[in-house]
Amino acid sequence: AQKITQTQPGMFVQEKEAVTLDCTYDTSDQSYGLFWYKQPSSGEMIFLIYQGSYDEQNATEGRYSLNFQKARKSANLVISASQLGDSAMYFCAMREPAYSGAGSYQLTFGKGTKLSVIP
Amino acid sequence: EPEVTQTPSHQVTQMGQEVILRCVPISNHLYFYWYRQILGQKVEFLVSFYNNEISEKSEIFDDQFSVERPDGSNFTLKIRSTKLEDSAMYFCASSDYARAGTDTQYFGPGTRLTVL
Q1: Taking residues A54-61, what's their average pLDDT?
Q2: DSSP labels for A36-93?
Q3: I need a labelling partner for A62 at 20 to 30 A (CA). Which of A68, A101, A107, B114 fits?
Q4: How many Cα atoms sit within 13 Å of B7 on the Cβ side?
Q5: Number of other CB atoms surrounding residue A54 within 10 Å
Q6: Are β-strands B31-37 and A113-118 bridged in parallel, bridged antiparallel, or unpaired?
Q7: How far is the C-alpha of B101 from the C-alpha of A49, rounded, in Å?
Q8: Are B48 and B55 in contact (CB under 8 A)?
């Protein structure tokens, strides 16, 4: 079963408009973290925003905000005032706890959403 | 701003050859990771490394793969005998001590490995 589901393979948005990229997740753990990364055509992975499962408020970072609905297990990324430079792949990822006791963990990624910003 | 660096940016090799991908994590980070992304697919976890040993590894990380921190700054991924299906972008990542709310993994720019 998919742990991270991104149902929108591609999205278009007009420049200066807001856009919401969907992400739902599946976990039985109480403690988890959710991340969004941006991957431009150049290939690097750029961290955008983080939401912890115990955080009471939705995370915000500049033009990025995370619409976290814990009961629905969704963590949608909202980009306000889209810019041409926002055109990229966007990946939602979830931190899975490591049970080895070493404290490190792995991220499980969704398949991504390709966002295209139209001038 | 500190960043993760990776070399080379692109590596082309013949099937059956050994390759070593190199990474320099952010200097005060303690946890190191390798991920891969086959073209057009999602990013997949390979291995995590802490305190000079592997913490976790995925099914992908079989005996052909190994990781090493040969000195205080480098973190390497070795593939002993490359296969065509190893062609992918390989990302190194690092994170600070995994305290709540700050356990973000920062990724390097990636090494694109092409196996011919």
Answers
A1: 90
A2: EEEE-TT---EEEEEEETT-SS--EETTEEEEEETTTTEEEEEE-S--GGG-EEEEEE
A3: A107
A4: 2
A5: 12
A6: unpaired
A7: 11
A8: yes
Alpha helices in B1-116 (DSSP H): none
Query: How far apart, in whole angstroms, are the C-alpha atoms of residue B81 and residue B66?
Result: 11
Q: Does B8 sit behind a cis peptide bond, omega within 30 degrees of 0 on the bond before it? A: yes
- Cβ–Cβ < 8 Å for A18, A10: no
Taken in order A38, A104, B30, B113, the sign of the CA dihedral is: negative
pLDDT digits (tens, 9 = 90+) for A7-55: 999 999 999 999 999 999 998 888 888 999 999 998 889 999 999 888 8
Task: Name the pairing type of β-strands B88-95 and B111-115.
Answer: antiparallel
Query: Which residues of B make CB contacts under 8 Å with A?
Result: 31, 33, 35, 41-45, 48-51, 53, 55-56, 58, 89, 91, 93, 95, 97-98, 100-101, 103-110, 112
Instruction: Please indicate whether, in this complex, the C-beta atoms of B43 and A109 are within 8 angstroms of each other.
Output: yes
- Any idea which residue has 């055509």 for tokens? A41
Burial (CB < 10 A; 0-12, 13-18, 19+), residue A4, is buried
Measured between beta carbons, the chain B residues lying within 8 angstroms of A50 are: 101, 104
Cα B116 to Cα B81: distance, rounded to the nearest angstrom: 12
Q: How far apart are the first and last CA of chain A?
A: 38
Residue A82 main-chain phi, psi, to 5 deg: -55, 145
pLDDT score for A99: 45
Which tokens go with A56? Answer: 């009471």
